[in-house]
Design goal:
- The chain is an alpha/beta fold.
- Helix content is 53%, strand content 17%.
- An eight-stranded parallel β-barrel has the order 1-2-3-4-5-6-7-8, surrounded by six helices.
- The longest helix has 17 residues, at 201-217.
- The chain binds SN-glycerol-3-phosphate.
- The site of SN-glycerol-3-phosphate has 9 residues, from helix 7.
């Protein structure tokens, strides 16, 4: 399973990219707003740090405006990084129309704010490169988010659908394990959850005891 980082925090992306585990980045307007820096500066740095799909959100509501916005976003990215841009398009009928056009023009799309398998199926049929079901928000709403991933994976597998599933709105490490067990293509994970995935108290205790014993034998 590929791991994307779900943040626009450059320091976090820099640090976690250095672990050698990152395959891509997802951002959204909320995450970008938290940076407190110029949008284009942040975006330019992200492309330099991670050589993989980077999702950037289009915020227009009409299909033709989404297409124009997508092209504007791409035009501001240096030529050599453009292959990595995926335009986030919301799951609406206008969004589907935009995905159809962008797909024909060879522009990658990530259909976002997906909360059901039917939405994922429609987005895939329109030509989405990626679909992003938001499982944490479903859990928050009293619905089991991971069941939606199970349904999407089953449907995409039944029909050999090439659209990749990005499990988004991940809240904790168990979401990542479950995503991988269900065969999701990608999990986009916030930095704090990636840090929790590293940790185990027995690892820390083992290091401590090895260091202590090494002191006894090294002389
Ligand atoms: O980037 C989209 C998604 O991962 C947002 O998650 O935590 O705002 O539900 P969250």
């Amino acid at each position: 399973m590929k791991l994307f980082i779900d943040t626009a925090d450059i320091n976090e992306i820099k640090e976690i990219a250095s672990w050698g585990i990152l395959d891509g980045v997802t951002t959204n307007p909320t995450l970008l707003a938290k940076c407190g820096r110029s949008l284009q500066d942040v975006i330019d740095e992200i492309f330099k740090l991670v050589d993989g799909p980077i999702s950037l959100e289009a915020l227009s509501e009409k299909a033709e405006d989404m297409v124009t916005e997508a092209k504007q976003i791409i035009s501001k990215i240096p030529q050599n990084y453009r292959k990595n841009v995926a335009i986030k398009i919301p799951m609406t009928s206008e969004g589907l129309k935009a995905v159809k056009i962008l797909c024909k023009e060879g522009i990658k799309t990530n259909v976002t704010l997906i909360f059901s398998a039917n939405q994922a199926l429609l987005a895939a049929k329109a030509g989405a490169t990626f679909v992003s079901p938001f499982i944490g928000r479903l859990d928050d709403n009293g619905q089991e988010g991971m069941r939606v991933i199970e349904e999407i994976m089953e449907i995409f597998c039944n029909y050999d659908i090439q659209t990749e599933v990005i499990v988004a709105s991940i809240r904790h490490p168990i979401h990542v394990i479950e995503s991988a067990r269900l065969g999701a293509d990608i999990a986009t994970v916030p930095p704090d959850v990636l840090r929790k995935m590293i940790k185990h108290p027995l690892t820390d205790a083992g290091i401590k005891s090895f260091l202590k014993d090494w002191e006894k034998v090294k002389k």
